[in-house]
Design goal:
Helices cover 16% and strands 38% of the residues. The chain is an alpha+beta fold.
Length: 128
């Protein structure tokens, strides 16, 4: 029996993969997908930190499937750890295939985001 695999985390961003984001074969550039994941982490981490955040690290990322022109890229984020000034987020990228309800996991990664104060120095992440 096949288990249905579903996204983990909170839907943080949805965007359409366009021709300008693709190579000649119609596959979306991995860097574009990674940029969308980074945007999503910035949104989620800034909400949690109630302020400015920056990306400090991205841990191991491998692409399981391509994203194609016309797919809707859906990014899910889950804050898995909050340190003094940093947060670790598990990020999943899923492609909703063009004109269908089919969702396929494309890649995932761990992102480390750091909260900053108004001078750009690391600052404690406030309690929830």
């Amino acid at each position: 029996m096949n288990a249905v695999i579903k996204p983990n985390g909170e839907l943080t961003l949805r965007t359409l993969a366009m021709p300008g984001d693709a190579n000649a074969a119609g596959d979306i550039f991995g860097g574009w997908v990674m940029a969308q994941m980074d945007l999503s982490c910035g949104i989620r981490a800034a909400e949690r930190a109630r302020g400015r955040v920056v990306t400090a690290a991205v841990k191991e990322m491998a692409f399981a499937l391509p994203v194609k022109i016309g797919d809707t890229l859906c990014i899910y984020t889950d804050i898995v750890k909050v340190g003094r000034t940093s947060m670790t987020l598990k990020v999943e990228a899923w492609a909703q295939r063009y004109l269908s309800h089919v969702m396929e996991k494309v890649t995932d990664a761990m992102f480390v985001m750091v909260a900053l104060d108004s001078t750009g120095k690391p600052t404690p992440v406030p309690a929830e």
